[in-house]
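Key idea: predict the complex, not the pieces.
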Amino acid sequence: MPNIPLPPCQDGSPVTDADLAALLAGKRDAALRLQPVADVLAALTAEPSPGELAGEARALAEFRQQNGAPVPRRGAHRGAAKRAPRLGTKVTVAATGMAVLVGGATTAAFANMLPAPIQRLAHDAIGAPYEPSPQHGPARGKPAPPVPLASHGTVTQGAKTRSPGRHSKPHPAGTPAASPHGQDQQGSGQGQGQQGSGQSQEPQGDDQGQANPDPQGRPGDPHPAGLLGNPHASARPAARHAPHRPPMNP
Amino acid sequence: MIGEEFASLLAAAQGGSEADFSLLWRDTNPALLRYLRVIAPGAEEDIAAEAWLQVVRGLRSFRGDEQAWRAWLFTTARRRAIDLARHRSRRPEAPLDDLTAAQLPGIEDSAEIALERLSTAAAIALVSGLPRLQAEVILLRVVAGLDTESVARLLRKSPGAVRVAAHRGLRRLAQITADAGVTL
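Result:
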């Protein structure tokens, strides 16, 4: 394209402020004699070049750091955010279940509620009472009530055996270990603080496997969750459950 | 400029949406770099990165429309540029307002550039040849998209002074392009 020199003011008229204002407003047809200037201004606002977008990664990294983990676009996903709490809850539930299990097993041992062979082992190991009797067996008395969970009540495993009655289900060794609330054996919720609330649930067995992290347990219950067992706990349970009740097999 | 979508875009970015922040960044960073290329040549990328860092940190507390948003970004960048200049040897501020277009530095290069197909870089080079205030005003009005009042606050000048500087700058550009024979 040939270069055609343009006189400063082709038509002799001065450039007015209105012309300049029109230029700044982006109106290219408002001042034709200023077209070259309009071209300059248009070039200043042209599409970005790749080099002008090269720093995006750095800016985004800073944004992420400032905001934590990247958040999906508006509208997208809240699932990830919600998953975190559930995961933490499951872990809590599992831990509580295990604690209850251990506590239940110990308590059952001291309550002389375990199957004879196991009771004997417990006697040897931790000094639990050992009184071999026909009553020792899978179904002993009142299966401990389900242990309610503080937050949401979903127990990980064994939640199924809730109902004390029904549970006669053999926890494989009739030990609490089979269920999250081994309480079955105790039937008194002793120690299982959690079971504290269990009492009322005993008969229903609809506990939903809730383990209440409430460490109080029952009055007189020496151990928060009875986790460590109480050598003297046997008295209580004995008073509470009906040891001679025939097992109710589901 | 984003326009009507700006409010929702900003809200989402403030809520942590990376994708929406990216849109904000892409919309303004090129203009920011072009502005900085004139007022702080050679350091535009570093200054822009520092400005964005500061903006990201204050993003959630920002309140305003798109004009305010751009004004905030360019103000932040300008302050960074000033801080950088203070660490360097100061250049004498030559009173360029009284010089004619022909006496402006780089006029020969401008003429060469004017003969080429006009590109963004060439346009920036032409504007860079203007006195500092005129160049800044034109860039902030045209490239940053700020109105006269916003530019006045940013530069700590009166709106009238901003208008005068803009018009003088445009007249100088008209003179330069006329003398250089810019192709259309």
